[in-house]
Amino acid sequence: MLRYVTTNEGKVREAESYLAEGSVSQLDFDYPEIQADELGPIAAQGAREAFRYAGEPVLVDDAGLFIDALDGFPGPYSAFVEDTLGIERVAELADTLSDTRAAFRCTLAYCDGGEFAASPDPIDRNDRGAAAAAGPDEASAIEGDTPPDAADHATDPVPVKLFEGYVPGRIVEPRGDGGFGYDPIFEHGGETFAEMDTERKNAVSHRGRALEKFAEWYADREVSA
Length: 225
Ligand code: ITT
Hints:
- The model is unreliable at 119-154 (pLDDT under 50).
- A hairpin with a 2-residue loop joins strand 6 and strand 7.
- It contains 9 helices and 7 strands; from the N terminus they run βαβαβααβαααβββαα.
- It has a single domain (2-224), classed as Maf protein, CATH 3.90.950.10.
- The protein is of the alpha/beta class.
- 38% of the residues lie in helices and 20% in strands.
- The chain starts with a strand and ends with a helix.
- Helix 8 (198-204) crosses helix 9 (206-224).
- The protein has a 7-stranded mixed β-sheet, with helices on both faces.
């Protein structure tokens, strides 16, 4: 059974349409989030922690809102900003900017304790370092693309595979009562995500795009497992 690791039921609702009924269940596990500028390393480390905790295949979902004119803020700090400032204040702040463009990003990190063929995309950049540490076959697939922080992860070779999704939009005054989190202030194609039902949000959203990639890859992994 695949465990979808999140404390957020809104995410689980969205994920359910991509994964066969009965094949996934929520793991309400609040993994310790490392400090990082990008979602990938946070999700990857979370997946390793969650796998150690659950001992079953896990999928961690880390997402955030990136406002262009604020150099991507709040990005990886989106949960903290939602809890402290609140989404209305974020909308007010964006209203003072001449450019209100923003994007949602979602990174899914999968770990089942097994190996994956290293591939340039999607794979956790940190895992390229781990793959290099694991042996020459894996290392050959990474062709010197080892990140500066690879050494930190070389002792932690549990492979993690990443799947990323992105959706552009802009920040507006809150509208709509569906969805969760920043959905009421994120407009895409003339509607906020909170004005869309789950199916319509999934069709365009960061999470929908990442889940689509994951589901396709996972179907093959399940078959070959
Ligand atoms: P978990 O870490 O337990 O999964 P979380 O809600 O804290 O739950 P994230 O750290 O990924 O999840 O989310 C960062 C913030 O972005 C948080 O405030 C979410 O409410 C918000 N968020 C994530 N996905 C979103 C989406 O699809 N629509 C609106 N807001 C979203």
